[in-house]
């Protein structure tokens, strides 16, 4: 059969890549092929379809027999739904000051979820039991929002990665205080690839209660999932997902993407590649005099400090963002489709601009 005719036209150069965000990348061809397979004919709406049912088995193969996935549209939606599921109306969430839920979600946990975020400054984006204790108090004080959840990100907003022992220690500490643990796993695949461990080692096996599982940053077109790991920790997930405007009517198209990533090893191949490109980028940057790498490069992000005027000129050649413009800090992200040539061209351009 010939492909259907369309009036749509390409409006960008597919050879152009930047280092602004792994969200800039398109969808992996295997994900697009899965979407095409799921298309055609009728399937029951709102998650009662064959693809969402199959996804549950795939999720359990990664996260244990009691895990249950609730596909949603995006990462912010996953975090807001997950955090509501493990808090009361008077509940609060302890998180790193740099956490995505605190700095990059437009107040959605507070405004949509009705939650209080209790933040803690961290040098590397990672919480520790000692840092949690800065906010873990006042459970009987009606004047203070009650700490009920510890939320961590894996990998963190600063590109650092928790070890399994670090997550286990946090979970044990939180549970001892009667709190639950949420993991923002928008880049969980990158962390697992770095540590060369299954995703379960960083989640249910370590004691995490609920997970926001990413797909978009690792090759999906759109879509994430809230994965309930501890069924006793949550209630009314279906109602919360709908109330939070995260229930997809044609859910099969979210579920089949996650199946394509997770059923075999596409999630791992994509994550390993983006991590490797970040390491290549870091190695190239370290050789450039006057450029400082700020944090360990443990996933697919490189944070650096360089002269402001150099960054501005370089941004005209490659897209990327300032992280702290006043300090001259920038963030460079690699994606599943970043190539060695992309990295080498960027490092060459950086050297040219630094020499001017």
Structure notes:
The structure is a single chain. The mean pLDDT is about 95. The protein has helices at about 30-40, 50-65, 75-85, 100-105, 110, 130, 165-175, 190-195, 235-245, 250-260, 265-285, 310-315, 340-355; strands at about 70, 90-95, 115-120, 145-155, 180-185, 210-215, 225-230, 290-295, 300-305, 320-325, 330-335. The protein starts with about 30 loop residues before the first helix and ends with a helix. Strand 8 (about 290-295) and strand 9 form a beta hairpin. A seven-stranded mixed β-sheet has the order 1-7-6-5-4-2-3, with helices on both faces. Strands 8-9-11-10 form a four-stranded antiparallel β-sheet, covered by helices on one side. Helix 12 packs across helix 13. About 50% of the residues are buried. With about 350 residues, it is of the alpha/beta class.
